[in-house]
Amino acid sequence: MTVTESAPGAGPRxxxxxxxxxxHEGILRRQSARESAARTYARALPIVPVRARGLTxxxxxxxxxxxxxxxxxTLALGHNxxxxxxxxxxxxxxxxxxxxxxxxxxxxDAFVTELFRTLPPGLAGHARVQFCGPAGTDAVEAAxxxxxxxxxxxxxxAFAGAYHGMTAGALAASGHAADVRVARLPxxxxxxxxxxxxxxxxxxxxxRWAESVLDDPKSGVPxxxxxxxxxxxxxxxxxxxxxxxxxxxxxxxxxxSVPLIADEIQTxxxxxxxxxxxxxxxxxxxxxxxxxxxxxSLPLAVVVYHEDLDVWGPGAHAGxxxxxxxxxxxxxxxxxxxxxxxxxxxxxSLGARMLSRLRALEGAYECVGEVRGRGLMIGVELVEEECxxxxxxxxxxxxxxxxxxxxxxxxxxxxxxxxxLAAAVQRECLKRGLIVELGGRHASVVRLLxxxxxxxxxxxxxxDRLADAIDAAARDQPG
Length: 479
Description:
It comes from Streptomyces naganishii JCM 4654. The chain is α/β, with parallel strands linked by helices.
């Protein structure tokens, strides 16, 4: 039916809908024409958000979505939570400066007080805080500067699959070439264990490897200024660190006076079911790098560290945008709301239920390799359904495809990652009004990062849509 043929009263509504779609498409066309080729989320998620509340986003075309990206984990309380909006309005109405460099302000004082209230007990009473530039990568760079100054050493040890940001040192720690000297160690996991065994044995081997590298004078890795890790690798594919391995690393680094740096940029503020993910293993790091959720949806990044490391001089790490008063106010409100309302505990219980239901997909679909996560940080790794679809390089030369496939299954080897299938699932999710992220070493992990405020009913809707999207994507694969 065209607009001219519409029933009485329907014409204006159809005109409005058509206008909304045209505006939506026009904005996307202009973005494609004017923005950088480096843009990422916009390519996979061609939406134009105009309104948002909690878990829900409404696009310019009138479509509504359940947002399980949450600003890459930034929105602990979801979009436009009332306590965050109230905190921002209070600062705006007060006449307080919005930009204050690193000067002391009542807003900053309140933020630091609330932040210290949440810290692991072993650190809270001995902590110092450095405000950095507005992004998490700035906090990582500041942490590297801090430990270099404190130890007099240069190198950094990081882990395969890590993601610590986009500046030079952070990129080096994430596995990319840069001027900062970074050694990378294997990060333990079950599904794709670097030692082929998984479980406690795999974690023990990873710990021994770290110990050997640090102690062996011929390893090529001098004693480093610091060791940085994510308690749950996020961009690396939602891989929780084994608690025993975390405790071993704490002992290994402490015995050698190597500061342990915990990157809690994505895992912090209740995301994993504890306020800080290191609390799962009862580990107290020397340094914590924090961003994302601590700003309550606005840019803010800090380094929190033990006072014994506070030997750097004035200006050792600076930056113009360290005094964002709106972000500090929003952050204070977010930290307090999560703490006072037990949202970390809520993330633990709801996340466990969501994982339990998603794990049923492992048996139902051959393409679901593993479901894993902690709290409301969940990943579903997608793999090739048949060996014939796998990479040629993973098959033994001279062996038949089916024979190699059977041998791999018998030995329990994981099937090749399926990034094309993960991308198809993401597209199918978007069709069903669900926004999800992809990650992992092969971009084959569908990631869920819903706000901590998600309701049981909303969680069910998310899982229903995801399961339906996996089913549709799996059926559409060439057989």
